[in-house]
Amino acid sequence: MISTHILDISQGQPAKGIEVLLEMEQKKDKWVQISLLSTNSDGRIVFDAAKDPGVYRLTFKIENYFDENFFLNTPVVFQIKNTKRKYHVPLLLSPYGYSTYRGS
């Protein structure tokens, strides 16, 4: 399972309605779309994706979230080796910065 949670740290609340694209790399720099979903009212998405080892990319489509944006589409690329665990990739977001980490 791959999931994400976006928190708007400038307002101290979940970021709802942000589209997030999940892709898997098939060959070097060739990506295949797995899913495109929007965050719910709690800023969360759980992707119904196969648990295959490989390189994945979440692209957070944040360009329309804030009135004034510096960052546009924000990709996060990560690798899955252990297919028996879940992978949670949260995004902490503000108009002029973001941070991510491997969550639990």
Notes on the structure:
This protein is mainly beta. The protein has a single domain, classed as Transthyretin/hydroxyisourate hydrolase domain (Immunoglobulin-like, Sandwich). Helix content is 0%, strand content 55%. Strands 1, 2, 5, 8, 9 and 10 form a 6-stranded mixed beta sheet that branches. Strands 4-3-6-7 form a 4-stranded antiparallel beta sheet, with no helix packed on it. Strand 3 and strand 4 form a beta hairpin. The radius of gyration is 13 Å and the shape is globular. It starts with a strand and ends with a strand. 17% of the residues are buried.
Judging from the principal axes of the Cα atoms, what is the shape?
A: globular
CATH topology: Immunoglobulin-like
CATH H-level homologous superfamily name:
Transthyretin/hydroxyisourate hydrolase domain
Percent range of helical residues = under 10%
Number of strands: 10
What low-confidence regions span 5 or more consecutive residues with pLDDT below 50?
none
Query: Largest sheet, if any?
Result: 6 strands, mixed
Q: Which CATH first-tier class would you pick?
A: Mainly Beta
Give average pLDDT, whole number: 94
Q: Termini, distance in Å? A: 11 Å
Based on CA atoms alone, the radius of gyration comes out at 13 Å
